[in-house]
């Protein structure tokens, strides 16, 4: 699963682009104006104590062009702390004593409030920490494919880990292997909204196929394919679906597409899928007495 995430990133590798996508042009302009305002106020202090903060802000703004520091708990907390400290420092250095006290009180309340919001955003709480510890104890059984015995464990942990895409995928897989296809698709659908990994759609399609709902299965497989077009596995699942439905021409089309597709990252799995597709073509040609250079409409 984690290998899949390497080619299906959940975030843009540019924080400004990510904010633009999520909040639109007004959102990204507001963020840029806020950072510019805080930075200019720091420069106007003309105090040696703000030099380090100016450097930290410049570092944050440069790193945000090539990474996503606001998407992980630790770096998000650190980045917001730097921004708040930079906004707070001019008030602390204010020569008027009254303004200095107000600035310190306001800054302290703001830091506490923002840290609480970040913890809520990243679902960081004692309950979540305990749930993750229990999940770590259950995962060895998942890796050994003991799905039936651990389904109830995942069900109990779900309320505290329902924002974790890795947990959602494993829970959905347990439900699927235990024959609870409808419930599995509910969980996997939640995961597909939080992750760009096409495996959520692949597994949902297999669930629909097991339920005999072939049109919905086909739709899920195509969603998986179009999300990461260089993947072969969704095409392989479509080939199997068409074969089961007796749609020979479409099955052959997918088999030819698999055999002729140049994989981005060669692996034993892609070799196996291509070999299977080639065997399907040979079997069909042998059974129907047609040549290898057959054309498909």
* Category by helix and strand content: mainly alpha
Give the strand tally. Answer: 0
Indicate the proportion of strand residues: under 5%
**Biggest sheet statistics:** none
Provide the low-confidence segments as ranges.
1-6, 291-297
Output mean pLDDT. 83
Rg (C-alpha, Å): 26 Å
| CA(first)-CA(last) distance | 36 Å
Determine the number of helices (DSSP H or I, runs of at least 4 residues). Answer: 14
> What is the helix fraction of residues, given as a range?
over 70%
Shape: elongated
Order of helices and strands: HHHHHHHHHHHHHH
Description of the molecule:
The chain has 297 residues and is mainly alpha-helical. It has 14 helices and no strands. The chain has helices spanning 2-5, 15-45, 51-63, 73-92, 97-121, 126-143, 147-161, 165-177, 181-194, 199-210, 214-227, 233-245, 248-260, 268-288. Helix 12 (233-245) runs antiparallel to helix 13. Residues 1-6 and 291-297 have low confidence and may be disordered.
Brief summary:
With 297 residues, the chain is mostly helical.
Secondary-structure blueprint:
Layout: H1 2-5, H2 15-45, H3 51-63, H4 73-92, H5 97-121, H6 126-143, H7 147-161, H8 165-177, H9 181-194, H10 199-210, H11 214-227, H12 233-245, H13 248-260, H14 268-288
Helix pairs in contact: 2-3, 2-4, 3-4, 4-5, 6-7, 7-8, 8-9, 9-10, 10-11, 11-12, 12-13, 13-14
Q: Which key terms come to mind for this protein?
A:
76% helix, 0% strand, disordered C terminus, disordered N terminus, 297 residues, mainly alpha
